[in-house]
Amino acid sequence: MKDSKIESKPILKYWLNTLSFGGLVFLFVCYYYFFQGDNFSLEMINKATASTAIILMGLSFALSGLGYYWDFLDRKVPYRKYLGLVGYFFVLWHGLNSLYFYFLANTGLEKFVLHKDWLVLNFTINNRIPFVLGALSLIIFTLMALISNNYSTKKIGGVRWRKLLRVGYIALLFALVHFTVKNFEIWINWFNEGANTLPQMSSLIAVYIVIILLLRLVMQISLSRKPKPEKLITNKSEIASRITRGSSMTPTLRQGRQSTKGRGKTGR
Known about the structure:
2 domains, two-stranded antiparallel ribbon
């Protein structure tokens, strides 16, 4: 009984801290849109939920790399799961709200017209492309949320489970294209007008996603270049054979101990 209470306390702390942090991020994003001149409306809330979702879920992914390179952030790594799930709540909110505007509501808002065309570097892109990529991103995040529990980890297996969660980086890439197609023209106009105001939240989110993807790429390269620890030689016949040949076992054993002791961190 005591063990269950001890185990539930940190989980409750993680949830409360993450929910509080997510709420503050959402309020900050709403204020940012409002400061830029957006009126408080369902459209603004829809944009704010999308931005909040990417910030929280992106931080969940980034903690792997941040904890890998900076040891003092190791204690924050357990928040990956909770940031991802709270972020998923916001992305689900955004997805359902968008579906409502696309198919059910008669709002007359141009941005929610499914057949709208977007201009990106003189290329015309139909709104179906970012819509489909956004939907695929939501599906991937949903699958990640469904397996974010101990039962799935045991059922799938730790290694395979971590590989499945890394598919989330593809969802982030889809979200990046989703944001870019819908806002590229606005970013260019902002830059051509002298960039005299705060940048669009969507542009900051796009840069944020790029940084997270690059962080993962750099960490993956570091992991691939890391020398694998040499296996300890424990077979008696092999030891006897090496002694007969006059080779020393000391360097091998020492390297094995050092590699075991100084084994580096791995990320999700």
